[in-house]
Each structure stands twice: as C-alpha cells, then as structure tokens.
Amino acid sequence: QVQLVQSGGGVVQAGGSLRLSCTASVRTFSNYAMAWLRQPPGKEREFVALISRGGGSTDYAESVKGRFTISRDGAKNTVYLQMSSLKPEDTAVYYCAAARTYSRTSYDYWGQGTQVTVSS
Hints:
Radius of gyration: 13 Å
Order of helices and strands: EEEEEEEEEEE
Low-confidence stretches: none
Largest sheet: 7 strands, mixed
C-alpha cells in the first residue's frame, strides 16, 4: 500500500507561481512513475504531468507545457509540480498519483487532492 500526502496549493494571482509537493510513504519510491492530474470545477479529471521512475522522462499536457515542471527527489520520496505563469484556467483540485507503469491513464494510488485557485 502506498500513501500519498500532498502539500502546497492555495490562491495565487494570474501570472504567479506555486509549487505542489507529494510525499509517498513507501520503501520503493523508485518503483513508481509519478503523475499530477487536476479536476477543474465542473469538469472531468485531466492529465497534467508525468515523470518516470528514474526521473529521466517526463510528459506534459499541451495546456501546461513550458509553464509547469514535474520533478522528483528519491531521497525524500517526493514529487513536485512547479507551476509558473499561472492562468485562471489552471484553477482546479490537483492530485498526485503513483503508477507502476509510465502511463497517462493508469494509476494505482492517489493523493488526497489540493485546491489551486488562480485569480484574474
């Protein structure tokens, strides 16, 4: 069983930056690809970013490419999402997820979610 605990989030003005963190309680953090997804108000959950088990590969949704950066720290069992040039349409509940495979659509464990609100 993997527990994912998220931190960060909050309210930020458009154009600002924010960093989300997600810490995994697991001995074998390196066995999991890690991802961030989000659910805007009234919409379906959508993929945001993905990082491979070793951190050597990343994948981003077109809507965040060039503005968001996913990274991971194996020593801290933590994955980050650095968000810059935020837009009101980035407002959503953000979730981290762990996956045994490097995939945009298949996840095994989820964090609790954290609200990000971007004001115009």
